[in-house]
Specification:
single chain; 120 residues; mainly alpha; 434 Repressor (Amino-terminal Domain); 2 domains
Length: 120
């Protein structure tokens, strides 16, 4: 399995922005150059496990927060992502998102046999 470095980089960038840190400040905290951190965030370079751990610690998040797009068993992280998406929604937006989620789930379960065929 190939890691999705773009997804990892995107999650690092989002967490950095939420922590109100510049690339320069985060790169200083984790001991990498700002250019290297920029390349990590854009997914144009491979990030080492040591760097992932250092970045997660500096941002006060877990490595799961950064790697969940690459892990099969990541339900808890995706539930947290959904909660964050819903956090600033108004009544109308919540209702529409709930309806869309319900319809999507119904379609996924109705057509589950197609997933089995595709996996063969």
């Amino acid at each position: 399995m190939e890691l999705d470095y773009k997804a990892i980089g995107k999650r690092i960038k989002i967490a950095r922005i939420k922590a109100d840190l510049t690339q320069e400040k985060l790169s200083e905290m984790v001991g990498v150059s700002p250019t290297h951190l920029s390349n990590i965030e854009t997914g144009t370079t491979r990030v080492s496990l040591n760097a992932i751990i250092s970045i997660a610690n500096a941002l006060h998040i877990t490595s799961d927060d950064l790697l969940c797009d690459n892990v099969v068993k990541a339900k808890v992280q995706f539930e947290k992502d959904i909660a964050l998406i819903l956090e600033d929604c108004d009544e109308y937006e919540i209702r529409i998102i709930r309806d869309m989620a319900s319809a999507t789930k119904e379609t996924l379960r109705r057509d589950a046999h197609l997933r089995k065929i595709a996996d063969q």
